[in-house]
């Protein structure tokens, strides 16, 4: 990356402070762009779901991986649950989604509770493992909550054999004017669901898979306690990445933990953070990190900068840390501070191999929380910071009441934040589409076909707040 007119600023920059300048390009189409990260993670798009309890669950892990990203499960998840989630994700199909299913005798109330768990807005009614009907929110609207699904479901079923490829499935759905269809095996038993949009996406995205062709997923762990034992458990379970995660990554405890994990001779990438300086990257790489997480305080749920004054504007932090990591043949993930597709592109221009997203994805159907409704009818989910009192209370549940009370006094993070569900983009796949479309276009403007080329060819300038405001679209007249 180079600064416009070769004038590097002397002050620190956020994503809002900078813009990209087009340059001569031979990239004829955004589809000529390859977004594989090249950092060993296996991700085929540069998006990593942050290890936040309100964001990263099994539904998120499955859905994001199917589109090329990787989810990092939070460190406060018990080992048996980690094992169950990993096994569940590894058994998911690479093309069709996991269906929500109920029996004909189940009620409308049960369907309404289940429908918000997936963006495809359909429950498959199943009898003897075979689909017999489909129920959507529209079917349940105005119906008696205690009515059986057999009385409201649509019985006009169009099913797809599980041998159907994505392109053929799209054509069949489009020709028949079907939005979705249950997917069945040779005996007619339900094995999944496929929407027209999902079939189309399957032709555009490549899921990151392990050596056995299964979806990839990572796991986080803290730096307290017996790190080596915990890391060994995660590695033995078969996670594809191990992430050592703490707010202050440039400290001796993290370095010691990294060395302990590296001593296990893991065959998967080891990620550690968070830092915002070249010195922090150097020390973590020396201790054994393959990927370093960059970011202190830019997250939507984080109060670190307001509470402590500690942190660094994210664009400058990523720029310096990425340059340092590159010298050692390592990579960085830009963790936090992205709110628009442009921010993701700018993080990659600064040298990140991928971008971690948390709260932005919290307001989707795939995040773990339940959908709630404001008095004026807006749908939302609750998000919270991983250093907040709410997260600390969960993480310290096994400690004494006294120790828990002491730690609760020193929270850094928002315990309850509303992440509204965008009616136009309610699912995480919708957000991924928007992000990837923006990033691919950014690459074509820079004349880059890969993430590495983009980091070399991007020309970045510095702008005022008015310059940033000028670039924002106006949805109403002025």
Tell me the Rg in angstroms.
23 Å
Fraction of residues in H or I helices: 25-40%
Strand arrangement in the largest pleated sheet? 3-4-11-12-13-14-15-16
Largest sheet: 8 strands, parallel, barrel
Terminal-residue CA separation: 36 Å
Which blocks of ≥5 consecutive residues have pLDDT under 50?
none
Quickly give the CATH architecture of the largest domain.
Alpha-Beta Barrel
Name given to the CATH homologous superfamily of the largest domain:
Aldolase class I
The CATH class designation of the largest domain is Alpha Beta
Sheet-strand content, in percent, reads 15-25%
The tally of structural domains comes to 2
What's the tally of helices?
Answer: 18
The CATH topology of the largest domain is TIM Barrel
Written description of the protein model:
This protein has 2 domains: 2-93 and 207-470, Aldolase class I (TIM Barrel, Alpha-Beta Barrel); 100-202, CBS-domain. It is built from 18 helices and 20 strands. It has helices at residues 58-66, 79-90, 108-114, 137-140, 166-175, 196-202, 227-237, 252-262, 278-287, 304-308, 314-327, 341-349, 359-362, 389-395, 401-408, 428-446, 451-457, 465-470; strands at residues 2-3, 18-21, 47-49, 70-73, 100-102, 123-127, 130-135, 160-161, 180-184, 190-195, 218-221, 241-245, 270-275, 291-294, 331-335, 354-357, 372-373, 379-383, 417-420, 459-462. A hairpin with a 5-residue loop joins strand 9 (180-184) and strand 10. The longest helix is centred in the C-terminal third of the chain and has 19 residues, at 428-446. The two termini are 36 Å apart. The model has no long low-confidence stretch (mean pLDDT 92).
């Amino acid at each position: 990356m180079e600064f416009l007119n070769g004038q590097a600023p002397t002050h620190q920059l956020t994503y809002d402070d900078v813009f990209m300048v087009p340059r001569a390009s031979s990239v004829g189409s955004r589809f000529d762009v390859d977004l594989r990260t090249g950092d060993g993670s296996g991700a085929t798009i540069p998006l990593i779901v942050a290890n936040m309890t309100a964001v990263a669950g099994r539904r998120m892990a499955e859905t994001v991986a199917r589109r090329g990203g990787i989810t990092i499960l939070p460190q406060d998840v018990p080992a048996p649950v980690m094992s169950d989630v990993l096994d569940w994700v590894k058994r998911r199909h690479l093309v069709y989604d996991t269906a929500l299913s109920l029996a004909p005798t189940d009620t409308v109330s049960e369907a309404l509770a289940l429908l918000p768990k997936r963006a495809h807005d359909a429950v498959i009614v199943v009898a003897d493992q075979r689909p017999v009907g489909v129920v959507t929110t529209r079917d349940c609207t105005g119906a008696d909550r205690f009515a059986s699904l057999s009385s409201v479901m649509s019985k006009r079923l169009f099913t797809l054999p599980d041998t159907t490829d994505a392109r053929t499935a799209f054509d069949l759905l489009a020709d028949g004017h079907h939005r979705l269809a249950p997917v069945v095996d040779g005996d007619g038993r339900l094995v999944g669901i496929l929407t027209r949009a999902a079939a189309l996406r399957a032709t555009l995205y490549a899921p990151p898979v392990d050596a056995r062709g299964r979806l990839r997923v990572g796991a986080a762990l803290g730096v307290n306690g017996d790190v080596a034992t915990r890391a060994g458990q995660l590695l033995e379970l078969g996670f594809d990445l191990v992430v050592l995660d703490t707010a202050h990554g440039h400290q001796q405890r993290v370095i010691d933990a990294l060395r302990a994990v590296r001593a296990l001779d893991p065959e998967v990438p080891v990620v550690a953070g968070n830092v915002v300086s070249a010195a922090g990257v150097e020390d973590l790489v020396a201790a054994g990190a393959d990927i370093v997480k960059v970011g202190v305080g830019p997250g939507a749920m984080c109060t670190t900068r307001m509470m402590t004054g500690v942190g660094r504007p994210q664009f400058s932090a990523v720029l310096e840390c990425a340059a340092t990591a590159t010298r050692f043949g390592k990579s960085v993930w830009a963790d936090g501070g992205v709110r628009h597709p442009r921010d993701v592109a700018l993080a990659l221009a600064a040298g990140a191999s991928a971008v971690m997203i948390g709260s932005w994805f919290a307001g989707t159907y795939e995040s773990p929380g339940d959908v709630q409704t404001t008095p004026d009818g807006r749908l939302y989910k609750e998000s919270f910071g991983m250093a907040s009192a709410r997260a600390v209370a969960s993480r310290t549940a096994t400690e004494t009441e006294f120790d828990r009370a002491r730690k609760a006094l020193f929270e850094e993070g928002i315990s309850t934040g509303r992440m509204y569900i965008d009616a136009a983009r309610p699912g995480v796949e919708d957000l991924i589409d928007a992000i990837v479309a923006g990033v691919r276009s950014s690459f074509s403007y820079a004349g880059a076909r890969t993430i590495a080329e983009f980091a070399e060819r991007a020309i970045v300038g510095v702008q005022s707040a008015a310059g940033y405001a000028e670039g924002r679209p106006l949805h109403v007249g002025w």
